[in-house]
Each structure stands twice: as structure tokens, then as C-alpha cells.
Amino acid sequence: LFQITTLINHKDKLKKTEKTLRAIQRVGQAVSVAVGRFVAVGEAIAVENEDLKDEMGLACFEARRAGTAIAQLTDVSGLEQCDGDGRSTVFSDRTGMVKAARMLLSSVTKVLVLADCIVIKQIISSRNKVLVTLEQLERVSTFQEFVQIFSQFGNEMVEFAHLTGDRQNDLKDEKKRARMAAARAVLEKCTMMLLTASKTCLRHPDCESARINKEAVFQRMRLALEQVIEIVTDTRSGGEAKALPVSIYAGIKDFKVKVEGLRDSMYCVSCEAMAAQLEALVEKTEDFTDSAYTSHEQRETIIQLCQITRQETKQLINTWRHAQLLKAKEATDEMELSILKTCQSVSDLRRELHKVAVGRATELLKLHSDHLVLQALKASGGDGNLEAVADYAGTLTEHKEQLVETCRLLCHISGTEPLEITCIHAEETFRVIGPQIISAAQTLALHPTSKIAKENLDVFCEAWESQLCDMAILLKEISDVFEGRRGDKKTYLSLPRPGKHSANLKTVKAAKLDAEEQTTIAKLGLELCLLTSDVDSEVERWDEQDHEIVRLGQIISSMAYSMYLFTRGEGLLKTTLDLFHQAEVLSDQGLQLCPILHSLSTQLLDEDRMLIISETEKLSTACQQLQVCAKTPVQGKSAIFQKVDSSIQNTKGILTVVVYLLPICNKLIRKCQSECSCLSSPQHWREKQLSTPVSEETLNGKSSNGFGVKSLEQHMANLTFLESK
């Protein structure tokens, strides 16, 4: 899309230098090649889906025709010698370029929409097959019938897992991705539970606790399957979409935005509305203060901070109304001071709530790390001691209530909507699995010699332990967001900011480039854009797309492209402060690439090793130069412009090295893999030396396309021994 935009927005009287002609031809060729690859995929999809074959075929035909037209219009080789031959080019037929671009974008959009419809139909069809088999499994009465149907069910669940895994990775909405991850996690665990719970019920058909245990698993699987379809189709069976309850973090964030917004406009919100919003926020803190597990000291601190926030907000409203009476056009100094104090008080409240919730969760995780209650339930059930099982069931129920409430508090302070969804999933998991463990233990106590009942209890206890591990990961994620290590990116607004030593509590606004400066920087931006295109092309040639070098290369390219958009006055980077922050982050990513390249060099022979080391040193130097440039404070319009120019030049230097390194590293890694299968990625090398309990993909909520496939196959293999059990 950005390549097409570049072609359309070129200057009418652009100087036809050899460099310009070569750049335009490269862009046109890149568009043509990309369209060809895209259409080939679309045509393959059309062949496999008869009902949409005609529509998809027509859209692919239009896309190919538009791509060909763009390639012809950008074929400007030797144009200066052929100006009089009457051939249409991007210079002479701008209208033709616009028409071709519109046709291309329209047809590509249609192909994507049709492909999306096909994927959704596949997922719905797969879900329907799973539901039919699930109903059959629920009604089976013999082991032989169960083995046969569960084998079919296992295959269908594997297919559904792959389809939903691909869909999860394609989702752009972080909330939907988190909901999908939660639903798929339920299906993964419930697949194992369904197997053992059904086996137990078949072995002990008259056992009420076994029946309750089995029914709960089937019900939870149906709910998870329904949630997947809701996410995929963006609809809910009950009508309107269910909104997440507003957390305290989200409430505080919105409240602070409105308070700070008074600097720009004192009439954007009413005093009454702001006061009411604060009261609603304070009311939500009752989840903390009303909890039986909150200490008296913590409760008093929270109440005191709420009162301070009320007082500061009341003072702000008074100064606000006074400024309105004076018909002030901007916030007065008194009002600015009240804004600062109000924001500080509400931030102090959030900090205290975070401390309480995280502290509680940390204590509970330590308390349950030894799993003594689960071990006691297993032992009591194996001994057939129903009375002891009842006693330990009461203890587990109390632990469950503590964990459920703690998850609710963590949801309030989690910091991002995806983490809120993960907290809600954890809360629901503890709420459901607790009673299921108890029913499984009761079944074992009634049938203490049953191997199947013991196996069933083990599966549910493992699910509980697994959820505690997930909660520890969740707690780390929440702490990282709070401390600024992950989550929302730092933003810069063109608003007055309070300064430590400023008499009027205001600072200068972030600078923007004027039209002449934008034009000068735009020339640099086009070169930067072409380099990002080169990086993307080299990345596509890698077989190992999840390699750390590829991942960092993609991140650097994406950030550089954002800087290119800035040179056009577009994108998310609105001011020079935004640009400098992006440059600083980009340099950090480049520096992260250096040790990975060094690790690669240790696997190579002398000549290749020296080449990688040499290029790594160039990359490190370029990154350090960009970092120094981005961090160096400057004053004055001319100095800021010079800093922008230097930042983009240094970024070009980084991308030049990355473009050179990508094909070399790809070639060397392939060579090493053919000689000895010991080189895959830096993560793989590290894992050989040190096994890590939690992978980065797990920490980000990502998972492989197939959930629980290996475990499922292991359980399937054991089905042949059901009769002997």
C-alpha cells in the first residue's frame, strides 16, 4: 500500500534523474511481484472452494490486471531517451496510475474478504463436527463405543485446534486474541479431562459424583466452543456484545485524561460529570476494602487515599469554575497546580491498589506452591476416607475463594485489556476446577481401588497446578506493565507539561516541522522506505520465519517505516519528540541483534566468522550513534531540524547493515544446518545449555496451532488398555 501511495503522490515535475527513475522502477516491480504472489494464493483458494470460485477468480483476475498496468506505467527505464515515443508512464499518465491503484486496492480487498469468509466457514464447520461427536460421546454406554468415537473426536479436535490457532495469530485486535487464547486453553485442558472423566463414569455408572464431574467438563467445553465462534464471527448468541466491566486501572486512566484535557479546553466536560466519575471510581475500590483478606492497615490506607483524591478533585473543580467565571481561555496557574495534585493523588491510589493486589497474589502463590491440599485429597481418596476428603474439600474451597477474589483484584490493576481478559479467565478456571477436583476425589474415595478414578483425579489436580503456574506468569506480566517494561508504549502529546523548575508550571510544546522542512526530510524518507522494502524482501526468503534474527529484522523495518511515514506527515508519529523516541527504541532493537549475531559467529569458520563480527561492529556503532543522537537535548528550530535529519540518516545506516546481513546469515545458517543439525536459532542454542520453564511465546499468550496434541495421542494410546483397568 505504501509503495502505491508513493507512486501516486510523486511530484508532477519531479526531476528525472537516473536515481529517481531507478527508484520508481524498483517500486513498480516490487508491486508487480507482490501482486503475483498474492493472486497465486487467491487462485489456489478458489480451486479448493467451489462455492466462491467464480467471485474469487474474478477478484484475482482484476488484481493481476491492475498489477500488470502498474508495472507497465513504472517501466521508465531509458525514459529520457524515449520521451517522444508516445509511451504512457507514471510521469505522463497520472490518471492511469490512480485508476490502476484503485482497481488493485479494490480487488485485493475483495480477495481478502472472500478468503476470510472461507476461513470462518471452515472454523464453523469444524466446530459443528466437534459438537456432533461431543453429543455422541456424552451418550455412549460401552467402552468399545467410547474408544471408537473418542478416536474420531480426537482427530476433529486436532483439526479445530490448527484452524483456531491460525486464526488467533491472524487477529489484530488484542482483546479478541486474548479471548481466543483463553477459549483454546479451556479446550486444551478439557480435552484431557473429558477423556478421564468419561472413562470414570463408564467404569462406575452408578456413581453420582462421577456423573457430576463428567457433566461439568462437557458443559465447559461447549461454552468454550461457543466463545470461539463468537470471536470468529464477531457476534454473540445472546444479542449485543458483552462489554468488559470497567477496571479501576481503566477508570483512573480515563479520569486522568479528562483532568489533563482541561489544559486544552475547560469546557470539554462538566464539573458534575468529573465528580461523578471519581465517585464511581472510588466505589470500585470497595472490592479491596470490603475483602476479608485485606489487612486493616491496607484498608485504612486505601480509604485515606480515596479521601485525598476527593479533596484534590474538589479543589480542582473550585479553581476550574473560578477560571470559567473569569472567561479564561486556558488553564490558570492555580488550576494547573490543582491538575497536578489531582493526577498525583489518583496515581498514588493506583500504586497502593497495585501493591495490595500483587502482594496478595504473591503470598497465595507461595502458600500453594507445595500443593499439600491436593496431595492430601489424593491420599484420602486412595484410602477411601470420605470424612477426610470432606475436610480437605472445605480447605480447597477456601483456597479457591481466595484465588478467585485475588484474580478479580488483579483484573482491576492489570493495566491492559488483554491482561484483564486473562485475569477473568484465571478467575473462571479456579471457580470451575475447584469443585471438579472435589467431585473427582469423592469418586476415588467411593472406589479407592479404581485406577481410572485415580487417573481422573490426577488430571484435575494437574489442571489446578497448571493454572497456578499461569497465574505466576500473569503476575509477572502485570508487574512489567506497571513498571513500564511491557504493555502500552510511551506516548508524547503536544500538550503543556509540568516542569520541576518552571514558574508557571508549563513547558514548551513538542515541535513540528513546517512545509519546507517536511519536503527536505521527505527525500530522505523515500530512501528509508526503499530500505525497509529490501529488508522485508530478504526476510521473506528465510525458511525459519521464527528465527530471532528475522524477528528483530522485522521489528527494525517496521519502526523505520513509521519514521518514513513521519517524513510524509502521516502515521502515528506526530511530533519530533515521537520521532526521537522511536529512533531510540529502534536503536535498542538493533543492539539486541548484535549479541545474537555474535552467537552465530561462534558457530562459523574463520572467514565467515570475521565477516559477521565485522558487520556486527558496524551495526553496533550505527545503533550507538542513533542512540546518542536521539538522547541529545537540543533547542531551537534549526537544531531540531538537524537532529531529525541526523536521526533518519543514522537509521538508514542501520537498515543498510541489516539488509546486507540478512541474506548472508540465512545462507550461513542453512550451510551449518546441512553440515550439522546443531544450529537453528539463538533460543535453541541457549536451551541446550539451560532449560527455561516458560517460553517467550507462552508469556505473550501465543501457542502452537495444535493444542495438547501430544498429550491427546498419549491418552489415545492408553485406550486399548481400558478393559484391563
Entry keywords:
disordered C terminus; 725 residues; mainly alpha; 75% helix; single chain
Give a quick rundown of the structure.
With 725 residues, the chain is an all-alpha fold.
Note the main sheet: none
Low-confidence stretches: 81-87, 486-510, 677-706, 708-725
Distance between the termini: 62 Å
Strand content: under 5%
Number of strands: 0
General form: globular
> Which structural class matches the secondary elements?
mainly alpha
What fraction, in percent, of the residue positions are helical? over 70%
Mean pLDDT: 80
Q: How many DSSP H or I helices?
A: 24
Report Rg.
31 Å
N-to-C SSE string, H for helix and E for strand: HHHHHHHHHHHHHHHHHHHHHHHH
Commentary on this structure:
The protein starts with a helix and ends in a 7-residue tail after the last helix. By secondary structure, it is mainly α. Helix content is 75%, strand content 0%. α4 runs antiparallel to α7, α13 (372-383) runs antiparallel to α16 and α14 runs antiparallel to α15 (417-446).
Q: What are the SSEs and their pairings?
A:
Blueprint: H1 2-8, H2 18-48, H3 53-73, H4 94-139, H5 143-170, H6 174-203, H7 208-233, H8 248-261, H9 271-284, H10 286-289, H11 296-325, H12 333-367, H13 372-383, H14 386-413, H15 417-446, H16 451-482, H17 515-540, H18 548-567, H19 576-601, H20 606-631, H21 637-675, H22 682-689, H23 696-699, H24 709-718
Helix pairs in contact: 1-2, 2-3, 3-4, 4-5, 4-7, 5-6, 5-24, 6-7, 6-15, 6-16, 7-15, 8-9, 8-12, 9-11, 11-12, 12-14, 12-16, 13-14, 13-15, 13-16, 14-15, 15-16, 17-18, 17-21, 18-19, 18-21, 19-20, 19-21, 20-21
